[in-house]
Design a protein that fits this description.
By secondary structure, the protein is mostly helical. The protein contains 14 helices and 2 strands, in the order ββαααααααααααααα. A two-stranded antiparallel sheet has the order 1-2. A hairpin with a 2-residue loop joins strand 1 and strand 2. The protein is globular, with a radius of gyration of 23 Å. It starts with 8 loop residues before the first strand and ends with a helix.
Length: 393
């Protein structure tokens, strides 16, 4: 996200300088002399390893456990090939986004740009027919980014509630999932109060360790009693393929966090390139998604559930452990996914209106609290009163 210390000062159409008077971006023949990466001033920058950890955690969410059901909608061979193609296209598009932002920064002599600012400046310098949309484009990009990230957070809250309930029902009185969602409210508030990516890095590391350990247990279950692979159709029905495409794209796409991660790096040049952070992370993620979808569907076929962990025997301690561990990993991931909408709302729409306030930190924490409410309320609000009554009866 654009750093608060960098004031973008409009000098006219397509003319900006950085806060240190970097110069007019339209000066001919000087673009090659300016490297935006060398002029960035970022508080709490992340290393290459920390950025890779965040990228993996941003991609390895609940979607990977839904890949076997996605393969059911596509067919086992079609799913394998299509997931690889979608992964390559997603990675390419992320490269285009990051490279385009760098070119705009270089052209206009601006150290750093946010995603919405990049969209606006690209339209302003693009074809004449697109320039009228430049003014409204930042608001549109912000809206979709915020909606996308908050939607992911909603899924995470439901996932944690459903999987903890699957374990709780084995030992406690069976109650509505909303009770478990209610019980998780304060922990979600606390994880969303971590204020920068540097502090989130240890949490993401822990979540990745838990995730990979959980994959080991998943493999233990799915590799048992594998049926003949010929029992699984190579191609699914045409009308279910869009469900596969939507699930896979949701699982793989990390557009909401990529710009934030690259903008917060200590060495942003290491993000792109053939062996950069983005390619290494996405290659690893695509291989894991293909493997999980292929083996999971091969093992369970048409009876595979939306989260493959729900196919495991609920009464076995190992199955319960995997549900709890993966729920913990997804809970930690909420902090990373929630970082993006909070940063957009705070930096773009709130902090400028509170300039001079002595209670900025309090207002920021109030915003973080409100974002958790927005993601938690839709699932919790309806029918919870009756669920609490059922628990107390």
């Amino acid at each position: 996200m654009a750093n608060e210390s960098m004031k973008l000062k409009p000098l006219g159409s397509n003319k900006y300088t950085d806060g240190e008077g970097g110069g007019n971006g339209n000066s001919p023949g000087t673009n090659e002399d300016y490297d935006p990466h060398l002029h960035r001033v970022v508080e709490n920058p992340t290393t290459n390893v920390e950025t890779l950890i965040h990228l993996l955690k941003g991609c390895l969410g609940t979607g990977i456990l839904a890949m076997p059901e996605a393969f059911k909608n596509s067919g086992i061979f079609n799913g394998l090939v299509s997931t690889f193609i979608i992964g390559v296209l997603c990675t390419y598009c992320l490269h285009v986004l990051v490279k385009s932002q760098y070119i705009l920064c270089k052209r206009l002599k601006i150290p750093i740009l946010s995603y919405p600012e990049s969209m606006k400046l690209a339209l302003e310098s693009g074809p004449q027919c697109l320039r009228p949309f430049a003014k409204m484009s930042p608001l549109l990009v912000d809206f979709f980014l915020i909606a996308y990230q908050l939607g992911i957070c909603c899924v995470y809250i439901v996932f944690v509630g459903v999987n903890v309930k699957a374990v709780g029902d084995q030992y406690l009185k069976e109650v509505d999932v909303k009770i478990y969602i209610l019980a998780s409210f304060i922990p979600f508030i606390l994880i969303n109060c971590v204020r920068n990516l540097k502090l989130l890095a240890p949490f993401s590391t822990l979540a990745n360790i838990i995730t990979f350990a959980s994959f080991g247990v998943v493999c233990y279950y799915v590799f048992q009693n594998l049926p003949p692979i010929d029992d699984r159709p190579s191609f699914g029905r045409l009308y279910t393929y869009p469900l596969f495409f939507g699930t896979t794209l949701f699982a793989l796409e990390a557009v909401g966090v990529v710009i934030a991660l690259e903008n917060n790096m200590k060495t942003p040049k290491s993000f792109g390139g053939y062996f950069g952070v983005l390619n290494i992370g996405m290659a690893f993620v695509v291989v894991l998604y293909i493997g999980m979808g292929f083996i999971g569907y091969w093992r369970y076929g048409e009876i595979v559930k939306p989260s493959i962990t729900l196919n495991f025997p609920a009464e076995q301690p190992l199955s319960q452990a995997i549900n709890l561990l993966y729920s913990l990993a997804i809970f930690i991931s909420y902090g990373l996914q929630g970082y993006v909408p909070v940063a957009i709302i705070w930096n773009t729409y709130v902090v400028k209106r509170l300039e001079g306030s002595t209670h900025l930190i309090a207002w920021e924490y109030l915003l973080r609290f409100a974002c958790v409410i927005v993601t938690w309320l839709p699932k919790f609000a309806f029918g919870t009163y009756h669920s609490v009554q059922e628990l107390l009866s």
